[in-house]
Amino acid sequence: MSIYEGSPWAKDPSFMWTKSSQYWNSGKYLRLVREASQIPFYQRSYAQRWVVRNATLNRILPEGYASREPDVENEAVLRQLPSCICIGAHLLFDVRDITAWLFITMTQPDAREGTREWFWFQACQLLSMLDRYQQALTSLDIMPNRRYNPYLPQRFVHASRWTIHDIARHFHVCGLRTRDANTHFREFANAWLNGLSHQPVEPAWDQVPVPIANDFTEPASSRKNKNRKLKKATIALNIHSHWPEAGQSTHQNPVVYDDSPPPYTEDPQPQQEAYDSTAVEVDEEDTPMSLDQDASRM
């Protein structure tokens, strides 16, 4: 499954398995991780599920305002699954029900607000009827299934009282398609509603605390660059703390030049004679020996 044309996911992404996950925070590896996270869980290949899971564990995901995806291979997470999720012949959970559960779990409000149970009830009411999600979007003048609307579930934040239409708008922002809402999401919602022992009570909205805005997580590439700059600054600070003179610049201690002439003395040094370039030095051994006149007469 690939949502972009010419993506390596549509070819052979096996080169990712030869690299450690520390390289997934930049370049083509980060693009593949980001693309795999924007695909609904049931449409991902086994390789894409593995990549998203490991990238989440290594804090490369999530990015922006997206919610952290629960690890469905963790025993503690599996114990939180509702009983309405179907189990196949091989004792495996139905991947479409897991997708619906992941989406509603990642979009539910913060636990401190105390409105999660009412949110689940309203969300399943919205998805339990055929085309009800699309009709809610149409009443809000929202065009469903926009092409450039990625699948990025994020926490529901809404001050004061909210209704089914507010949930529908939020699901649209998170990238829920009407096709998914009318198929496996509808089946999961009906199973969840049928498993209720009693209908939840609407919260007292005047007692609900003000919701906290979603935290923005910078992309892994930006965090990597900031960590590199911080590491360089820390190293420079350690050098200056151990060797203070290393951090001093030359303009703090300028060099002073003395242009005054040397002092006058009474007995100056004798000046050397100028060298005559025209004079030719003659070696004494090469000169002819001078003869004494008296000696020549003998």
The share of residues in helices is: 25-40%
SS content category: mainly alpha
Radius of gyration: 41 Å
What is the number of helical segments per DSSP (H or I, 4+ residues)? Answer: 11
Structure notes:
With 298 residues, the protein is mainly α. It is built from eleven helices and no strands. Helix 4 (95-107) crosses helix 9. It has helices at 27-37, 46-57, 75-78, 95-107, 116-128, 132-139, 164-173, 178-182, 184-194, 220-242, 293-297.
In short:
The protein is mainly α. The chain has helices at residues 27-37, 46-57, 75-78, 95-107, 116-128, 132-139, 164-173, 178-182, 184-194, 220-242, 293-297. It is built from 11 helices and no strands.
List keywords for this structure.
298 residues, mainly alpha, 11 helices, disordered C terminus
Produce the secondary structure layout.
Elements: H1 27-37, H2 46-57, H3 75-78, H4 95-107, H5 116-128, H6 132-139, H7 164-173, H8 178-182, H9 184-194, H10 220-242, H11 293-297
Helix pairs in contact: 1-2, 4-9, 5-9
